[in-house]
Protein backbone atom coordinates (compact mmCIF):
# COMPACT_ATOMS: atom_id res chain seq x y z
CA UNK A 1 0.00 0.00 0.00
CA UNK A 2 1.13 3.52 -0.83
CA UNK A 3 1.09 6.40 1.60
CA UNK A 4 -1.63 8.95 0.93
CA UNK A 5 -1.63 12.70 1.56
CA UNK A 6 -4.27 15.38 1.59
CA UNK A 7 -3.10 18.22 -0.66
CA UNK A 8 -6.22 20.37 -0.89
CA UNK A 9 -9.26 21.29 1.21
CA UNK A 10 -12.43 23.29 0.60
CA UNK A 11 -15.82 23.81 2.17
CA UNK A 12 -18.88 26.02 2.16
CA UNK A 13 -20.46 27.84 5.04
CA UNK A 14 -22.88 25.50 6.82
CA UNK A 15 -26.42 26.65 7.52
CA UNK A 16 -29.72 27.41 5.86
CA UNK A 17 -28.34 28.28 2.44
CA UNK A 18 -31.65 29.21 0.79
CA UNK A 19 -30.04 30.76 -2.28
CA UNK A 20 -27.85 27.79 -3.14
CA UNK A 21 -28.80 24.46 -4.72
CA UNK A 22 -27.27 21.04 -4.04
CA UNK A 23 -25.15 21.29 -7.16
CA UNK A 24 -23.97 24.80 -6.29
CA UNK A 25 -22.74 23.88 -2.80
CA UNK A 26 -21.10 20.72 -4.14
CA UNK A 27 -19.24 22.64 -6.79
CA UNK A 28 -18.23 25.47 -4.46
CA UNK A 29 -16.54 23.09 -2.00
CA UNK A 30 -14.97 20.97 -4.72
CA UNK A 31 -13.58 23.93 -6.64
CA UNK A 32 -12.13 25.40 -3.46
CA UNK A 33 -10.32 22.12 -2.72
CA UNK A 34 -9.01 21.75 -6.26
CA UNK A 35 -7.88 25.39 -6.26
CA UNK A 36 -6.16 24.87 -2.91
CA UNK A 37 -4.25 21.90 -4.41
CA UNK A 38 -3.41 23.95 -7.53
CA UNK A 39 -4.78 21.23 -9.80
CA UNK A 40 -6.33 21.24 -13.25
CA UNK A 41 -9.49 19.23 -13.90
CA UNK A 42 -7.59 16.79 -16.12
CA UNK A 43 -5.22 15.92 -13.23
CA UNK A 44 -8.10 14.28 -11.33
CA UNK A 45 -8.46 10.52 -11.70
CA UNK A 46 -11.68 9.96 -9.78
CA UNK A 47 -14.36 11.57 -7.63
CA UNK A 48 -16.12 10.12 -4.58
CA UNK A 49 -19.20 11.86 -3.15
CA UNK A 50 -20.60 11.21 0.33
CA UNK A 51 -24.33 11.84 0.45
CA UNK A 52 -27.01 10.29 2.62
CA UNK A 53 -30.34 10.98 1.03
CA UNK A 54 -30.50 13.34 -1.93
CA UNK A 55 -33.25 11.04 -3.18
CA UNK A 56 -35.53 12.19 -0.39
CA UNK A 57 -34.12 15.64 0.40
CA UNK A 58 -34.17 16.93 -3.19
CA UNK A 59 -35.69 13.95 -5.04
CA UNK A 60 -32.48 13.51 -7.00
CA UNK A 61 -30.53 10.27 -7.12
CA UNK A 62 -27.40 9.76 -9.22
CA UNK A 63 -25.72 12.76 -7.61
CA UNK A 64 -22.13 11.68 -8.29
CA UNK A 65 -22.75 12.07 -12.03
CA UNK A 66 -24.46 15.38 -11.32
CA UNK A 67 -21.39 16.73 -9.51
CA UNK A 68 -19.05 15.32 -12.18
CA UNK A 69 -21.11 17.11 -14.80
CA UNK A 70 -21.33 20.52 -13.11
CA UNK A 71 -17.69 20.49 -12.00
CA UNK A 72 -16.59 19.92 -15.58
CA UNK A 73 -15.08 16.54 -14.79
CA UNK A 74 -17.59 14.75 -16.99
CA UNK A 75 -15.87 16.36 -20.01
CA UNK A 76 -12.91 14.14 -19.19
CA UNK A 77 -15.27 11.24 -18.40
CA UNK A 78 -13.80 11.10 -14.87
CA UNK A 79 -15.38 8.28 -12.84
CA UNK A 80 -17.65 9.53 -10.04
CA UNK A 81 -19.09 7.36 -7.27
CA UNK A 82 -21.63 8.15 -4.57
CA UNK A 83 -21.10 6.58 -1.15
CA UNK A 84 -23.85 6.20 1.47
CA UNK A 85 -23.70 5.17 5.14
CA UNK A 86 -26.18 7.64 6.72
CA UNK A 87 -24.19 10.07 8.91
CA UNK A 88 -20.93 8.30 8.04
CA UNK A 89 -21.34 8.86 4.28
CA UNK A 90 -18.62 11.53 4.14
CA UNK A 91 -16.05 9.60 6.15
CA UNK A 92 -16.76 6.50 4.14
CA UNK A 93 -16.34 8.40 0.86
CA UNK A 94 -12.95 9.56 2.13
CA UNK A 95 -12.05 5.97 2.94
CA UNK A 96 -13.00 4.86 -0.58
CA UNK A 97 -10.80 7.60 -2.03
CA UNK A 98 -7.99 6.67 0.34
CA UNK A 99 -8.13 3.03 -0.73
CA UNK A 100 -8.16 4.00 -4.40
CA UNK A 101 -4.94 6.01 -4.01
CA UNK A 102 -3.26 3.65 -1.51
CA UNK A 103 -3.86 0.69 -3.83
CA UNK A 104 -2.21 2.44 -6.76
CA UNK A 105 -5.41 2.43 -8.79
CA UNK A 106 -5.50 6.25 -8.85
CA UNK A 107 -2.95 9.00 -8.16
CA UNK A 108 -5.23 11.97 -7.49
CA UNK A 109 -8.75 11.68 -6.16
CA UNK A 110 -11.27 14.32 -5.06
CA UNK A 111 -13.53 13.35 -2.17
CA UNK A 112 -16.58 15.48 -1.54
CA UNK A 113 -19.53 15.34 0.79
CA UNK A 114 -22.76 17.29 0.42
CA UNK A 115 -26.29 17.45 1.76
CA UNK A 116 -29.11 19.90 1.02
CA UNK A 117 -31.50 19.46 3.94
CA UNK A 118 -33.57 22.64 4.04
CA UNK A 119 -35.50 22.27 0.79
CA UNK A 120 -37.96 20.10 2.73
CA UNK A 121 -39.96 21.00 5.87
CA UNK A 122 -38.37 20.12 9.24
CA UNK A 123 -40.83 17.29 9.82
CA UNK A 124 -39.87 15.53 6.63
CA UNK A 125 -36.19 16.22 7.25
CA UNK A 126 -36.48 14.56 10.67
CA UNK A 127 -38.27 11.59 9.13
CA UNK A 128 -35.49 11.19 6.56
CA UNK A 129 -32.96 11.16 9.39
CA UNK A 130 -35.00 8.41 11.09
CA UNK A 131 -34.06 6.22 8.10
CA UNK A 132 -30.57 5.93 9.58
CA UNK A 133 -32.14 3.82 12.35
CA UNK A 134 -34.08 0.57 11.80
CA UNK A 135 -37.19 1.87 10.08
CA UNK A 136 -39.14 -1.37 10.44
CA UNK A 137 -38.33 -2.37 14.02
CA UNK A 138 -37.55 0.96 15.71
CA UNK A 139 -39.30 3.83 13.93
CA UNK A 140 -42.57 1.97 13.21
CA UNK A 141 -42.98 1.62 16.98
CA UNK A 142 -42.46 5.32 17.68
CA UNK A 143 -38.69 5.69 17.83
CA UNK A 144 -37.15 8.85 16.38
CA UNK A 145 -33.46 9.50 15.85
CA UNK A 146 -33.31 11.90 18.85
CA UNK A 147 -35.27 9.52 21.11
CA UNK A 148 -32.85 6.67 20.41
CA UNK A 149 -30.01 8.92 21.57
CA UNK A 150 -32.15 10.07 24.49
CA UNK A 151 -32.39 6.45 25.62
CA UNK A 152 -28.60 6.20 25.41
CA UNK A 153 -28.34 9.34 27.55
CA UNK A 154 -30.84 8.03 30.13
CA UNK A 155 -29.06 4.70 30.39
CA UNK A 156 -25.65 6.40 30.53
CA UNK A 157 -26.72 8.52 33.49
CA UNK A 158 -28.18 5.41 35.15
CA UNK A 159 -25.07 3.27 34.65
CA UNK A 160 -22.34 5.80 35.34
CA UNK A 161 -23.95 8.44 37.52
CA UNK A 162 -23.24 11.14 34.94
CA UNK A 163 -25.34 14.28 35.38
CA UNK A 164 -27.65 16.06 32.95
CA UNK A 165 -25.40 19.11 33.38
CA UNK A 166 -22.30 17.20 32.29
CA UNK A 167 -24.05 16.04 29.13
CA UNK A 168 -25.29 19.56 28.41
CA UNK A 169 -21.75 20.89 28.81
CA UNK A 170 -20.85 19.33 25.44
CA UNK A 171 -23.15 21.82 23.69
CA UNK A 172 -21.74 24.76 25.68
CA UNK A 173 -18.18 23.73 24.77
CA UNK A 174 -18.95 23.18 21.07
CA UNK A 175 -20.75 26.52 20.77
CA UNK A 176 -17.69 28.13 22.36
CA UNK A 177 -15.50 26.56 19.68
CA UNK A 178 -18.05 27.42 16.98
CA UNK A 179 -17.86 31.07 17.98
CA UNK A 180 -14.26 31.01 16.75
CA UNK A 181 -15.13 29.45 13.37
CA UNK A 182 -16.35 31.89 10.69
CA UNK A 183 -17.85 29.00 8.71
CA UNK A 184 -19.93 27.63 11.60
CA UNK A 185 -23.70 27.65 11.41
CA UNK A 186 -23.91 29.00 14.99
CA UNK A 187 -21.22 31.45 16.09
CA UNK A 188 -22.64 32.48 19.44
CA UNK A 189 -21.63 31.15 22.81
CA UNK A 190 -24.41 29.72 24.96
CA UNK A 191 -24.77 29.10 28.68
CA UNK A 192 -25.51 25.84 30.46
CA UNK A 193 -28.91 27.29 31.34
CA UNK A 194 -29.75 27.71 27.64
CA UNK A 195 -29.22 24.00 27.08
CA UNK A 196 -31.07 22.90 30.21
CA UNK A 197 -34.11 25.15 29.65
CA UNK A 198 -34.50 24.53 25.91
CA UNK A 199 -37.74 22.92 24.69
CA UNK A 200 -37.67 19.14 25.03
CA UNK A 201 -37.20 17.03 21.90
CA UNK A 202 -36.94 13.61 23.53
CA UNK A 203 -36.33 13.63 27.28
CA UNK A 204 -33.75 14.01 28.64
CA UNK A 205 -32.50 15.71 25.45
CA UNK A 206 -33.68 19.16 24.43
CA UNK A 207 -33.24 21.28 21.35
CA UNK A 208 -29.72 22.39 22.31
CA UNK A 209 -28.59 18.77 22.67
CA UNK A 210 -29.27 18.17 18.97
CA UNK A 211 -27.22 19.16 15.92
CA UNK A 212 -29.21 21.34 13.50
CA UNK A 213 -30.48 20.63 10.01
CA UNK A 214 -27.96 22.17 7.64
CA UNK A 215 -27.03 22.67 4.02
CA UNK A 216 -23.36 22.42 3.19
CA UNK A 217 -20.54 20.71 1.41
CA UNK A 218 -16.87 19.93 1.98
CA UNK A 219 -14.13 18.43 -0.15
CA UNK A 220 -10.54 17.23 0.05
CA UNK A 221 -7.99 16.28 -2.59
CA UNK A 222 -5.97 13.09 -2.06
CA UNK A 223 -2.65 12.32 -3.70
CA UNK A 224 -0.01 9.66 -3.33
CA UNK A 225 2.56 10.84 -0.79
CA UNK A 226 5.42 10.55 -3.28
CA UNK A 227 3.82 13.13 -5.58
CA UNK A 228 2.24 15.32 -2.90
CA UNK A 229 5.11 17.81 -2.71
CA UNK A 230 4.66 18.59 -6.39
CA UNK A 231 1.46 20.34 -5.34
CA UNK A 232 1.91 21.62 -1.80
CA UNK A 233 4.56 22.43 0.81
CA UNK A 234 2.30 21.21 3.61
CA UNK A 235 0.94 17.78 2.70
CA UNK A 236 -1.01 16.19 5.55
CA UNK A 237 -0.58 12.45 5.72
CA UNK A 238 -3.43 10.02 6.27
CA UNK A 239 -1.84 7.78 8.89
CA UNK A 240 -4.82 5.47 9.23
CA UNK A 241 -8.22 4.77 7.74
CA UNK A 242 -10.48 2.31 9.54
CA UNK A 243 -14.11 1.33 9.54
CA UNK A 244 -16.36 -0.96 11.56
CA UNK A 245 -19.99 -2.12 11.61
CA UNK A 246 -22.44 -3.04 14.36
CA UNK A 247 -26.14 -3.93 14.56
CA UNK A 248 -28.45 -1.54 12.73
CA UNK A 249 -30.94 -1.40 15.60
CA UNK A 250 -29.75 -0.07 18.94
CA UNK A 251 -31.73 -2.76 20.81
CA UNK A 252 -29.60 -5.46 19.12
CA UNK A 253 -26.65 -4.70 21.43
CA UNK A 254 -25.89 -5.87 24.95
CA UNK A 255 -24.94 -2.34 26.11
CA UNK A 256 -26.05 0.90 24.43
CA UNK A 257 -23.60 3.11 26.34
CA UNK A 258 -20.67 1.88 24.26
CA UNK A 259 -20.41 2.10 20.48
CA UNK A 260 -18.48 -1.09 19.79
CA UNK A 261 -17.95 0.00 16.18
CA UNK A 262 -16.14 3.11 17.44
CA UNK A 263 -13.93 0.97 19.64
CA UNK A 264 -13.19 -1.48 16.81
CA UNK A 265 -12.48 1.23 14.22
CA UNK A 266 -10.29 3.12 16.70
CA UNK A 267 -8.29 0.01 17.58
CA UNK A 268 -7.66 -0.69 13.90
CA UNK A 269 -6.76 2.94 13.23
CA UNK A 270 -4.36 3.30 16.15
CA UNK A 271 -2.69 0.03 15.14
CA UNK A 272 -2.24 1.18 11.56
CA UNK A 273 -0.91 4.59 12.63
CA UNK A 274 1.27 3.04 15.37
CA UNK A 275 -0.10 5.62 17.78
CA UNK A 276 -2.08 5.64 21.01
CA UNK A 277 -4.94 7.89 22.13
CA UNK A 278 -2.54 9.92 24.30
CA UNK A 279 -0.67 11.06 21.17
CA UNK A 280 -3.71 12.75 19.60
CA UNK A 281 -3.80 16.54 19.94
CA UNK A 282 -7.23 17.19 18.48
CA UNK A 283 -10.26 15.17 17.44
CA UNK A 284 -13.37 15.89 15.44
CA UNK A 285 -16.02 13.50 16.75
CA UNK A 286 -19.62 12.87 15.71
CA UNK A 287 -21.61 14.98 18.21
CA UNK A 288 -24.94 14.75 16.40
CA UNK A 289 -26.26 14.74 19.98
CA UNK A 290 -24.45 15.88 23.12
CA UNK A 291 -24.44 12.34 24.52
CA UNK A 292 -22.79 11.06 21.33
CA UNK A 293 -19.64 13.09 22.06
CA UNK A 294 -19.32 11.57 25.54
CA UNK A 295 -19.55 8.05 24.12
CA UNK A 296 -17.05 9.00 21.41
CA UNK A 297 -14.33 10.41 23.65
CA UNK A 298 -14.57 7.28 25.81
CA UNK A 299 -14.84 4.67 23.06
CA UNK A 300 -11.90 6.28 21.21
CA UNK A 301 -9.80 5.79 24.36
CA UNK A 302 -9.27 9.42 25.42
CA UNK A 303 -11.12 8.95 28.72
CA UNK A 304 -12.23 5.95 30.79
CA UNK A 305 -15.79 4.69 30.28
CA UNK A 306 -18.23 6.79 32.25
CA UNK A 307 -15.79 9.66 32.85
CA UNK A 308 -16.35 11.64 29.63
CA UNK A 309 -18.96 13.87 31.24
CA UNK A 310 -16.68 14.87 34.08
CA UNK A 311 -13.76 15.39 31.66
CA UNK A 312 -15.93 17.67 29.53
CA UNK A 313 -17.23 19.64 32.51
CA UNK A 314 -13.62 20.02 33.72
CA UNK A 315 -12.59 21.56 30.37
CA UNK A 316 -10.33 18.72 29.27
CA UNK A 317 -11.88 18.69 25.77
CA UNK A 318 -11.62 22.45 25.25
CA UNK A 319 -8.94 23.94 23.01
CA UNK A 320 -5.97 23.92 25.37
CA UNK A 321 -7.28 20.88 27.27
CA UNK A 322 -5.92 17.32 27.30
CA UNK A 323 -7.35 16.70 23.81
CA UNK A 324 -9.15 19.47 21.89
CA UNK A 325 -12.45 17.96 20.76
CA UNK A 326 -14.52 19.48 17.97
CA UNK A 327 -12.49 22.63 17.47
CA UNK A 328 -14.69 23.44 14.47
CA UNK A 329 -17.72 23.65 16.73
CA UNK A 330 -18.62 20.08 15.91
CA UNK A 331 -21.88 19.01 14.37
CA UNK A 332 -23.70 20.97 17.08
CA UNK A 333 -22.36 24.44 16.25
CA UNK A 334 -20.58 24.14 12.90
CA UNK A 335 -23.65 22.36 11.52
CA UNK A 336 -24.47 18.88 10.27
CA UNK A 337 -25.20 18.61 6.54
CA UNK A 338 -25.17 14.85 6.86
CA UNK A 339 -23.14 13.67 3.86
CA UNK A 340 -20.73 16.60 4.19
CA UNK A 341 -20.01 16.11 7.88
CA UNK A 342 -17.38 13.38 7.69
CA UNK A 343 -15.42 15.31 5.06
CA UNK A 344 -15.77 18.61 6.93
CA UNK A 345 -14.27 16.98 10.02
CA UNK A 346 -11.16 16.19 8.00
CA UNK A 347 -11.08 19.70 6.49
CA UNK A 348 -10.91 21.01 10.07
CA UNK A 349 -8.12 18.59 11.00
CA UNK A 350 -6.07 19.61 7.95
CA UNK A 351 -6.65 23.30 8.71
CA UNK A 352 -5.37 22.75 12.25
CA UNK A 353 -2.42 20.55 11.25
CA UNK A 354 -1.35 23.18 8.72
CA UNK A 355 -1.49 25.76 11.52
CA UNK A 356 -4.12 27.82 9.70
CA UNK A 357 -6.96 27.68 12.20
CA UNK A 358 -6.62 31.28 13.42
CA UNK A 359 -8.31 32.01 16.74
CA UNK A 360 -9.16 28.36 17.35
CA UNK A 361 -5.68 27.01 16.54
CA UNK A 362 -4.52 24.13 18.72
CA UNK A 363 -0.89 24.84 19.64
CA UNK A 364 1.69 22.43 18.16
CA UNK A 365 -0.97 20.15 16.66
CA UNK A 366 0.72 17.18 14.96
CA UNK A 367 -1.84 14.37 15.14
CA UNK A 368 -5.59 14.65 14.59
CA UNK A 369 -8.38 12.07 14.60
CA UNK A 370 -11.82 12.11 13.00
CA UNK A 371 -14.69 9.84 14.10
CA UNK A 372 -17.75 9.74 11.84
CA UNK A 373 -20.85 7.76 12.83
CA UNK A 374 -23.69 6.37 10.73
CA UNK A 375 -27.06 5.85 12.46
CA UNK A 376 -26.79 4.86 16.10
CA UNK A 377 -23.34 3.37 15.58
CA UNK A 378 -24.11 0.81 12.87
CA UNK A 379 -21.21 2.27 10.88
CA UNK A 380 -18.19 4.09 12.29
CA UNK A 381 -15.25 5.46 10.31
CA UNK A 382 -12.06 6.67 12.00
CA UNK A 383 -9.22 8.51 10.27
CA UNK A 384 -5.95 9.62 11.83
CA UNK A 385 -4.00 12.42 10.17
CA UNK A 386 -0.51 13.69 10.83
CA UNK A 387 1.91 16.38 9.75
CA UNK A 388 4.06 14.85 7.00
CA UNK B 1 -44.78 2.58 4.02
CA UNK B 2 -46.46 0.10 1.71
CA UNK B 3 -49.15 -2.11 3.24
CA UNK B 4 -47.37 -5.34 2.34
CA UNK B 5 -44.34 -4.21 4.28
CA UNK B 6 -46.38 -4.31 7.49
CA UNK B 7 -48.53 -7.31 6.54
CA UNK B 8 -45.60 -9.64 5.98
CA UNK B 9 -44.33 -8.93 9.51
CA UNK B 10 -47.70 -9.42 11.22
CA UNK B 11 -46.71 -12.61 13.04
CA UNK B 12 -43.97 -10.82 14.93
CA UNK B 13 -45.77 -7.50 15.25
CA UNK B 14 -48.95 -9.10 16.65
CA UNK B 15 -47.60 -12.12 18.52
CA UNK B 16 -43.91 -11.39 19.28
CA UNK B 17 -42.63 -14.30 17.23
CA UNK B 18 -38.84 -14.47 17.55
CA UNK B 19 -36.44 -17.01 16.09
CA UNK B 20 -34.22 -19.46 17.90
CA UNK B 21 -31.11 -21.12 16.50
CA UNK B 22 -31.23 -24.79 17.49
CA UNK B 23 -27.50 -25.05 16.85
CA UNK B 24 -26.44 -22.58 19.57
CA UNK B 25 -29.70 -21.65 21.27
CA UNK B 26 -29.41 -17.91 20.54
CA UNK B 27 -32.69 -16.00 20.32
CA UNK B 28 -33.28 -13.22 17.80
CA UNK B 29 -36.05 -10.65 17.71
CA UNK B 30 -37.16 -9.72 15.10
CA UNK B 31 -36.75 -13.25 13.71
CA UNK B 32 -33.91 -14.00 11.32
CA UNK B 33 -33.51 -16.65 8.65
CA UNK B 34 -30.04 -17.52 9.82
CA UNK B 35 -28.10 -17.12 13.03
CA UNK B 36 -25.51 -14.30 13.10
CA UNK B 37 -23.46 -16.37 15.58
CA UNK B 38 -23.47 -19.75 13.77
CA UNK B 39 -23.69 -18.39 10.23
CA UNK B 40 -24.10 -21.17 7.64
CA UNK B 41 -24.29 -23.95 10.23
CA UNK B 42 -27.67 -22.58 11.31
CA UNK B 43 -29.31 -22.91 7.90
CA UNK B 44 -32.42 -25.07 8.20
CA UNK B 45 -32.00 -25.11 11.98
CA UNK B 46 -33.90 -21.93 12.86
CA UNK B 47 -37.23 -22.33 14.64
CA UNK B 48 -40.06 -19.97 15.55
CA UNK B 49 -40.07 -18.99 19.20
CA UNK B 50 -42.93 -17.08 20.78
CA UNK B 51 -41.89 -14.57 23.44
CA UNK B 52 -44.03 -14.57 26.59
CA UNK B 53 -44.35 -10.81 26.36
CA UNK B 54 -43.02 -9.83 29.77
CA UNK B 55 -39.89 -7.91 30.57
CA UNK B 56 -38.56 -4.67 32.05
CA UNK B 57 -37.61 -1.22 30.88
CA UNK B 58 -33.89 -1.02 30.04
CA UNK B 59 -34.02 2.65 29.05
CA UNK B 60 -36.69 5.12 27.97
CA UNK B 61 -37.38 8.59 26.63
CA UNK B 62 -40.44 10.83 26.60
CA UNK B 63 -40.90 11.86 23.00
CA UNK B 64 -42.00 15.46 22.43
CA UNK B 65 -41.16 15.79 18.74
CA UNK B 66 -42.88 12.97 16.90
CA UNK B 67 -43.24 12.04 13.25
CA UNK B 68 -46.44 13.20 11.54
CA UNK B 69 -48.31 9.90 12.00
CA UNK B 70 -47.72 9.95 15.77
CA UNK B 71 -48.34 13.68 16.24
CA UNK B 72 -51.59 13.03 18.14
CA UNK B 73 -49.93 10.63 20.58
CA UNK B 74 -47.18 12.93 21.89
CA UNK B 75 -45.82 13.23 24.45
CA UNK B 76 -45.41 9.47 24.75
CA UNK B 77 -43.08 7.07 26.51
CA UNK B 78 -40.75 5.21 24.19
CA UNK B 79 -38.66 2.47 25.75
CA UNK B 80 -36.24 -0.33 25.12
CA UNK B 81 -37.50 -3.42 26.91
CA UNK B 82 -35.36 -6.35 27.93
CA UNK B 83 -37.68 -9.33 27.60
CA UNK B 84 -37.45 -12.13 30.18
CA UNK B 85 -36.05 -14.38 27.45
CA UNK B 86 -33.11 -11.96 27.07
CA UNK B 87 -33.76 -10.18 23.77
CA UNK B 88 -34.39 -6.43 23.63
CA UNK B 89 -36.94 -4.52 21.57
CA UNK B 90 -38.18 -0.96 21.17
CA UNK B 91 -41.81 0.10 21.68
CA UNK B 92 -44.13 2.56 23.38
CA UNK B 93 -45.17 2.14 27.00
CA UNK B 94 -48.84 3.15 27.40
CA UNK B 95 -51.43 3.27 30.20
CA UNK B 96 -48.54 4.64 32.24
CA UNK B 97 -48.17 8.18 33.57
CA UNK B 98 -45.12 9.90 32.09
CA UNK B 99 -43.63 10.35 35.55
CA UNK B 100 -44.08 6.64 36.36
CA UNK B 101 -41.76 5.45 33.58
CA UNK B 102 -38.48 4.28 35.03
CA UNK B 103 -35.61 1.92 34.32
CA UNK B 104 -36.42 -1.52 35.74
CA UNK B 105 -40.23 -1.10 35.54
CA UNK B 106 -41.86 -4.47 34.84
CA UNK B 107 -44.01 -4.40 31.70
CA UNK B 108 -46.09 -6.76 29.53
CA UNK B 109 -46.97 -6.59 25.85
CA UNK B 110 -50.42 -5.62 24.58
CA UNK B 111 -51.76 -5.38 21.02
CA UNK B 112 -52.56 -1.77 20.11
CA UNK B 113 -53.11 0.50 17.14
CA UNK B 114 -49.73 1.86 15.97
CA UNK B 115 -50.71 4.22 13.16
CA UNK B 116 -53.22 4.85 10.39
CA UNK B 117 -52.52 5.62 6.76
CA UNK B 118 -54.95 8.56 6.66
CA UNK B 119 -58.75 8.42 7.02
CA UNK B 120 -59.24 5.86 4.25
CA UNK B 121 -56.03 3.86 4.61
CA UNK B 122 -54.91 0.73 6.37
CA UNK B 123 -54.69 0.71 10.16
CA UNK B 124 -51.47 -0.79 11.51
CA UNK B 125 -51.47 -2.76 14.75
CA UNK B 126 -48.58 -4.03 16.78
CA UNK B 127 -47.13 -4.39 20.26
CA UNK B 128 -46.99 -1.73 22.91
CA UNK B 129 -46.30 -2.33 26.58
CA UNK B 130 -48.18 -1.56 29.79
CA UNK B 131 -46.92 -1.63 33.38
CA UNK B 132 -47.33 -5.08 34.90
CA UNK B 133 -49.86 -4.61 37.69
Short structural summary:
The complex is a heterodimer of chains A (388) and B (133). By secondary structure, chain A is α/β, with parallel strands linked by helices.
Descriptive overview:
The complex is a heterodimer of chains A (388) and B (133). With 388 residues, chain A is an alpha/beta fold. Chain A folds into two domains: 4-121 and 213-235, Thiolase/Chalcone synthase (Peroxisomal Thiolase, Chain A, domain 1), CATH 3.40.47.10; 125-210 and 237-387, Thiolase/Chalcone synthase (Peroxisomal Thiolase, Chain A, domain 1, 3-Layer(aba) Sandwich), CATH 3.40.47. Chain A has 14 helices and twelve strands. Chain A has helices at residues 22-36, 54-57, 63-70, 89-102, 122-130, 145-160, 164-178, 192-196, 225-228, 260-273, 290-299, 308-313, 330-334, 338-353, and strands spanning 4-11, 46-50, 80-83, 108-116, 200-203, 205-206, 215-224, 236-245, 282-284, 324-325, 367-374, 379-387. In chain A, the strands form two sheets. Chain A has a ten-stranded mixed β-sheet with strand order 3-2-4-7-1-8-12-11-9-10, with helices on both faces. In chain A, helix 4 crosses helix 14 (338-353) and helix 7 crosses helix 11. The termini of chain B are far apart. The interface between A and B is medium-sized, with 35 and 35 residues. Strand 5 of chain A pairs antiparallel with strand 4 of chain B.
Amino acid sequence: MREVAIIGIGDTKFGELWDMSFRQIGIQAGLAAVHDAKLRAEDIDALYVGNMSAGRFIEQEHVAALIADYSGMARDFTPATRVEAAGASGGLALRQGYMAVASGMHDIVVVGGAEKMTDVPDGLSNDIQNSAADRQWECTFGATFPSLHAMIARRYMHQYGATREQIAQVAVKNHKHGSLNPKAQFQKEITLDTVLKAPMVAEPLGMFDCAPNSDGAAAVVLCSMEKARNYTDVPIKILASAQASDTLALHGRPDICTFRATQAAAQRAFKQARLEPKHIHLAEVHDNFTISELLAVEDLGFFAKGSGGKATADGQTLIGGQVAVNTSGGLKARGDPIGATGVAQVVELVTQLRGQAGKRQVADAKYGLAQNVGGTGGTVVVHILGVA
Amino acid sequence: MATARFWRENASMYNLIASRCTACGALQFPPRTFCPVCHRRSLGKMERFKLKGEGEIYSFSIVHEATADLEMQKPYVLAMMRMDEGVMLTAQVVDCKLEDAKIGLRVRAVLRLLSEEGPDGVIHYGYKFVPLA
